[in-house]
Amino acid sequence: MRKHLLAVAIATELLLSSTAWGADDAGGILKEAKTVLDEAVSLEGGWTSTQDLIKESEQQLQSGAKDQALKLAKQALAEAKLSLERARELNKNWSVPKYLTK
Amino acid sequence: MTRACRHLHLPLLTSLACALLFAASAGVTRAGPQEDLQIYQDFFKKRFPTLSVEDLSNGAYSFSEDKKKQWLDIMEFPPYEVAIEEGKTLFETPFANGKTYGSCLDQGGIGIAHTYPRFDKATGKVVALAGALNACRAANGEKTLSTFKGDLANIAAYLTSTSRGKPITVTVPDDPKALAAYEDGKRIYFTRRGPREFACYHCHWVAAGARIRGNELSTAVGQATHFPTYRSKWGEMGTLQRRYKGCMENTGAVALKENSDGMNNLEYFHTYMSNGIPMNAPGTRF
Amino acid sequence: MRPLTPEIKNTVYTTTLLLSAAGVWLGLAGSVHASAADNIAKGKALTLEQCQACHHYEGTEQAGTVAPPLLQMKTRFPDPKKLQRILFDPTKELGPDTMMPPFGRNKLLTDAEINLIIEYLYSL
Lengths: 102, 286, 124
Known about the structure:
The complex is a heterotrimer of chains A (102), B (286) and C (124).
Chain A: H1 2-18, H2 20-42, H3 48-62, H4 66-92
Helix pairs in contact in A: 2-3, 2-4, 3-4
Chain B: H1 2-7, H2 12-24, H3 33-47, H4 53-57, H5 65-74, H6 81-92, E1 118-120, E2 125-127, H7 129-139, H8 151-161, H9 176-190, H10 200-204, E3 211-212, E4 215-216, E5 229-231, E6 236-238, H11 240-250, H12 261-272, E7 283-285
Helix pairs in contact in B: 6-8, 7-8, 9-12
Chain C: H1 6-22, H2 24-31, H3 36-50, H4 73-76, H5 80-88, H6 90-94, H7 111-123
Helix pairs in contact in C: 1-3, 3-7, 5-7
């Protein structure tokens, strides 16, 4: 069962990445990832790992490895969204620990 | 809000209730800078009763005999001496318009480093020493430089050397903008960030003296006294904000920008908690 | 879950490092049918990456001391669900000031990796 699913996943990804649409998509997702990351950074809550993912994805895209670029772009976007969500939450809920208050 | 409480001149019980009310709401700062200072410095007096404030300014070396010995060996010929010399020359060399850095600073810049960061009433913002030097360059038509390292860090090394031994004296004047800047620095200090969600405070209070891997963690109080510092890892001088950047990136967080309001406010809050401790800069760390 | 001799532990550790180098995906896909010893080795490699900077436990060399040593874990935490919850989001279990990172919530570790770590900690 697992093997079948894996095969389907690989086939789908190959199909997608072999079309021009797949390549454009990586670029589009990267752009969105950067926008979301910028917002997290402006809230002082960006993650360096997202910067790394974006850079790696761009390098893969340049060297023509579209599937890899797409995969990394998706990871970057998901992580950027998580960091933004966390930044909003953490900025709202910061507090001084009890041992540093009277 | 806290100040609102204080200015109301309420009967004792009501003011107590007022204080409790504000203390209870998370994120709202209850204590003013002076009360904070008392709490922060008392914390380490209680936690490390055998350490003097000077010991605190020696950072992690107060927690490892072995490393302290190595450090004292290095200090026989401190690697920052060259930076002080270079910094002095740079500081005294006039700009293209004939003016000098000294023209922008109180007392011509000598013996004032221990009073930085300062709140600037004219702009309503906090300036750190390297930032003040950069502002001076800009005002005199010179291009601005890095406030992390290089010429400005070397000049800061020279200027702090003229303040060595003077107690850190950062002031938060009675100005709502100054207090807001202090509170903003405090917020940045206590807010978790990055994938591991560490805040500055996690490593340097209850965890001070313990190790992350092989590295002892220094105490929050005392840290700001020895910057700029020559770090072996850098192979040159770096300012306190350069250290903040390294600290933030070590935890996986994207660092705040150099000389930004956030960085300056953080340095303001963080240096204020070392008030009264003799300036021990420039420093050396390996 | 036989206790391993130090030599075997070393071999297992080296193998795990090689495996990790070959790709986490490979290691994880294999873990479903892997033996307990394999899981423990993988769990150990993960702890060396993620835990020893702060916690001391058997087999660490430059372990940190900012967090409690990981001793008698099975006795102290008989319910693995509690450890799962701590590793996922420690602020819920250990209090809002805890220094421990939210490994699961922030996707620093997958659920499968968290379980491998717990399996290893129980073997100590």
